[in-house]
Design goal:
Number of strands: 11
Strand order of the largest sheet: 7-6-5-4-8
Number of domains: 2
Structural class: alpha+beta
CATH class of the largest domain: Alpha Beta
Shape: elongated
């Protein structure tokens, strides 16, 4: 079994999602895990130190049994700026703010930021444009093969109020989203 297959099988077997694996020339093996969406679809739970420890211990045993060499193993959460690697990641985080880097420039730019949306046959990034003739919103349609890197835009709350939790459908048109003051936004209307 390959090291990639051994890690993926182990992480999935423990009920987590494998986000990414990095191997460095110095023997560092870095594994990023997240809660499996099927396990926590409505209220995703953050990865804890206990989760990382559990996966680390199991991976140490599996990698030793499989005879796969490494010098140091690190298991962690993907962070607030979670990378989007697979088509399933894009579907899971549709409606969220995303930073996108294209492989080739489009209209002189490679980096874009906006709301990720699913479209027939691909994906769309809705960009907010301020000022000038472009005041309003524009969209960038793309396929996954055109993307070099995509990451969630971190949501940080410095005021101490609780933000609505991210969910698989948060931010989609017609979805109800709570605001910090308790109002409900339904399809763009505050009620």
């Amino acid at each position: 079994m390959s090291w990639q297959g051994a890690i993926e099988t182990t992480v999935k077997g423990l009920g987590y999602e494998l986000v990414d694996v990095e191997r460095s020339a110095g023997g560092l093996l870095r594994v990023y895990i997240d809660q499996h969406q099927a396990e926590t679809p409505t209220a995703p739970r953050a990865i804890t130190v206990d989760d990382c420890e559990r996966v680390t211990r199991q991976l140490q045993h599996v990698l030793e049994v499989e005879g796969l060499a490494y010098q140091r193993l690190e298991v962690s959460s993907p962070g607030l700026d979670r990378p989007l690697k697979k088509a399933a990641d894009y579907g899971r985080f549709a409606g969220e703010q995303v930073e996108l880097t294209l492989k080739l420039p489009f209209k002189g730019r490679k980096k874009y930021r906006g709301e990720l949306q699913e479209r027939e046959g691909g994906w769309r990034l809705v960009l907010a444009v301020d000022g000038g003739a472009d005041d309003g919103q524009r969209a960038l349609d793309f396929d996954l093969e055109e993307v070099r890197e995509a990451r969630l835009v971190p949501v940080i709350d410095f005021k101490g109020r609780r933000l609505p939790q991210r969910s698989a459908g948060a931010g989609r048109a017609g979805a109800e989203v709570g605001t910090p003051d308790g109002a409900v936004v339904d399809g763009g209307r505050i009620q």
